[in-house]
Amino acid sequence: MARTLPLLDAAQRREFDSPPKFTTPQRSFFFSLPEWAEPLLRTMTVPHMRGGFLLQLGYFKASGRFFSTERFAAADRAYVQHRYALGEVAWPRYERVASFRHRTLLLHHFGVASFEEVQSQVVQQVTHFARQQMNPVAVFRTAADYLLAHRWEVPTYAALAGVVTEAFRTVEQQLTTQVAHLLTPALRQQLDALFTTEADEPAHAHRPYRLTTLKRSLELMRPAAIRANVRDYAVLQALFAQVQPVVAALDLSEELVRYYARYVERAQVFQVQQQTDKKYLMVLCFVVQQYYQVGDLLTETLLQAVQTHRNAAQRETQERVYRQQQDTAGQLRELLDGVLTHGTALVELEQVAFSFARTNAEKVTALLGWLQSPAVTAFAQLRQTAQQLRKGGGGNVAGPYYQVVEERSRALQHRLSDILRLVRYEGVLNSPLDQALAQYRDRAGSLGSKLPASFLKAAERTALDQAESTISLYKALLAGHVADQLKAGKLNLVHSLSYRPFDTYLLNATTWAAQRAELLFQTNLLDLGEPGPFLDALQAKLAAAFAHTFERLNAGTNPAVRKRADGRPRFLTPARPPDEEAPAPRPLFPGAGQISLHEVLHTVNQQCRFTDCLDHWSPRHRPPRPADRVFFAGVMAYGCNLGLTRMAHATKHVAQSTLENTVNWYFSLDNLRRANDAVLALMGKLPISRLFQRAPGQTHTSSDGQKYHVAVDSIHATYSYKYFGQEKGLVSYGFLDDRHRLFYSTTFTSATREAPYMVDGLLYNEVVESTIHSTDTHGFTEVNFAVTYLLKVAFAPRIQSFQDQQFYAFVGMAVPDLTAYALRLGKPLDRGLIEAQWETILRLIVSLKQKHVTASTVLKRLNSYSQHHPLYLALRELGRAVRTEFLLRYMDDQDLRKRIDDQLDKLESTHTFARAVFYGQNGQFRYAGKEEQQVADACKRLVQNVIVCWNCLYLNQQLFQASPTERQALADVITRMSPVSWQHINLQGEFDFSDEALTQALQFDLDALLTVEWETDDPTQPM
After folding, report:
1. CB-based contact 16:8 (threshold 8 Å)
2. Model pLDDT, residue 557
3. Percent of the chain whose predicted confidence (pLDDT) is above 70
4. How confident is the model over 983-994, as pLDDT tens digits?
5. For residues 786 and 796, what is the distance between their CA atoms, to the nearest angstrom?
6. Who's near 491: CB < 8 A, 6+ residues apart?
7. Do 706 and 911 form a contact (C-beta atoms < 8 A)?
């Protein structure tokens, strides 16, 4: 390990060790003297002592830190000199001794402990941070925040970086020592075997290392890929059983396991093997992480295969029923005609049998004659027609559906039989489904004649009795029930990232009980400590909204309401003023295609250095950093959907191997999100960005999904006939603020609802802090209303036909008559249900705010429980109250409705922008893996943000260069436009048609080429 980890670059180090930058009002506040300091200042006689003391005092008040004399800002020195009449000051004479003495005084009077006093505690805490998160830069910043929060002095960069470096060295030494003691010879031998090939011969492309084969996860739905994943899972399962006790004894955090596992995934086998002290630790973490990931992958395979099977069965059933209706119409007519004819004959025969005019012999002769008649022969043949109709579903109470399921079962078994046999899903012990799964595993999928079918529905059991192949239908039904109960949370995969029991995602209950008050303080949730006051305030707010909204409705003072014929209110949203739709009086951007995308990336990078956020995966052993042009090429390759190979072939000065290596080691999702944040932060600093805010002091954000076709087989893409026809696709779910900053995005399958991902964007970005958030109907759930309210974000969706929504009120609340407006009031809200689950609700919210778990993971898991989970029921009840209060305001405030529409319109406009940027490969994703899909999406967002940032810089410069008399008029024009413009950007590069580009072109001598001859054995062919 290097002497000191390179935590910050040179510019960041200078910024960290420099005093805070003050505005004029801030200087007035921070450089004012507290009462205790006035006598001290009077004892100082020389100007440099007085000035140095005043500056250190102000800087310490603002940052809790001390700075060297050469770092004092010139503007701050001039301010202090003028305000305190210091005269000429020889600042270099403010020597180290005086500075140290003033430091001691300031620490004492502000009640802050010096770094030297608490250094041992800091080392201990930073070491704890290092065990939790293997990102030294994040640990460094967390340590600085921790010191400030505990009123401890924050030292220089060098001192704190030394502590962080020592902490990581200590953690790795401790872990490697523990691993060496915990590994048995047998387990060590098993891990060493991963660095060999199956044939114990040198590795090559067709004979990879065992570790290399385990690194592949084929995120495809092809049966061959599924079988390969199952084989890997079997190997990982056996290894995991051996390493789990070691990993448990090491007490490794999820972040630490993920870090070492991802290093193994990215590195060549020899790079891991040469880490003599750490290779076993790395491989242990890799086995754990990969076992979890492949288990989740197989579970997603099961869920998608079952859904695809059901969709196909339902579609074929409908087609078969339609064909049967067409094909059997004649048969039914023939059958009915035969029955009617036969019935008529029976009536005639009955008359003969009971006739007194005929003798018995005559009656027998008539009966025999009738039996031998063609009519009876034709009626007997109708039996075959009736059997065909019955087989086609006419006589089956379940119809042809289960018959289709049975017929298609083979294809489903081909994909899922090994998954059900190998992956241990756990539910209620000894439940009917649990017993059925246990028998399936015990018999390795070979079921006997006695099938445990008590978990099946009555109709399914009936269909099973009538099935031609009972086993085939049973296995399809078993897979369907497993999928349903996985979605419902009744079955779980304990060793998993996405399908664990819900409670395991939250903060540990013991930790919560011991640190409840501190955790609420850290997450700024102290006002939620007790449910009573919180719910009282919500109830009062809801009652006031009911009274105000319906008072205005009854009085007719709400100008944006019209009454429909059925008595229901119609709420109008004002149209946009014509001047807002008018184009700018003069073009504000350069001509079409004049600015290259490379220039845009370079210009913005000069201002915010977003490429510096793309750190090497290993912060300890970093190779020489690639040039910025390599990062630009990688961003464009993914962001414009060109692909690395095509980008390398079309680019000079960037080799394909260099580009691929850079993307492998530098383009992680966290890095790309930080790069986006750097661009967003620059945009936020520009004065022009404030012109786009409709409500100053409020940050209005929105989110929406955009569909993309996936042109390759991928488990992370699903069918959507509306958008993709017979093909598959995914959703890119993006977030935008009112300054046109795309501050978050993620991807998921097109069959997944957007609502669980909404909270992710509000929590997992470091720049935009939303105060009000809007979505369309797809992002709305009552749980989302509750969670955002607890997170102190106003959720304001645009709900289609919102008058059809039910309104709710607490027990005993005075509610106006809603029936006069044809609105519905639901049953009273159960306050006791919310209070009973309050501690779990707080654990959930704190877990989200501390980023202990992503909101999408936990909310998808919670929503799947539906009506059964008490936490879901409590959040739904709370969300109903919050939603009702919002709907009442939404009805009453037409300006709110307009702001919501405007913000969602801004986001809609970015969809066309995204299509223009992501133009390569016909705008289709060609990545099967989840991570690569998300990397492409993050790069696309980075390109978009960089273009918008360049536009803002350009417009800001126009404002700066305008004369004072023109500036306000130009600002008014910019306010009515959008910086989301790209016609002036050349996204697709240029062709070089200059003569210089042809100097090395190949030349051909056609006359010489035509004289070439060769011998041939075929005499019919000319020489």
Report:
1. yes
2. 87
3. 95
4. 999 998 887 787
5. 12
6. 425, 426, 427, 433, 482, 485
7. yes
